[in-house]
Prior knowledge:
Blueprint: H1 2-24, H2 31-40, H3 43-51, H4 54-69, H5 75-83, H6 98-107, H7 109-115, H8 140-146, H9 148-158, H10 163-170, H11 180-188
Helix pairs in contact: 4-5, 4-11, 5-10, 6-7, 9-10
Amino acid sequence: MRSGRAGGWLAKACYRAWQMWRALTPRPLDAADRAILTTMLPPGGRALFAAMSRHDQRHSLSVYHALRAHGHTDPELLAAALLHDSGKGGGRVRLWMRPTVVLLRAGAPRLLTWLARPSTAGTSTDMGTDTDTGVPHWRRPFYYAWHHAEIGATLAARAGLSARIVLLIRTHHDARGPAAELHAVDDAL
Length: 189
């Protein structure tokens, strides 16, 4: 039994190492990728996609293709797949921070929850605090990583995407929510 746990841990570690390599070496978008974006997203949605890191763009396209391979054709679900991680874009969650977030989520979830918490009312906005969130600069990547679904949904609403796409982005981490299909595919990749 003990070797089964070790094998599971080793498989997870190898998968995470492969994920990191893939994140460091994403291939650029090609004409087929750009055609998908033009077909599936309005200009505001394409701007959100463009603000994402190349790694997140590749991941979102992989989620899109996996949903298509599972027979999903709903254009709003597919658009949400392309934008589900847009809340990480614009440099909010840098690649170097992601392994830390993954390790904390697995090994110290209460610490991650504490690091990602929003600031309480009355917190001063001095030079060490982000004026958009009220979160101290050193905690900002944790905040954005933890709250990226809500942030992405807000950005999608501002970009003029439909209320349903906004809802699917907001709930893409809820296994039983409106975006359950998106969550299942996203979680598997």
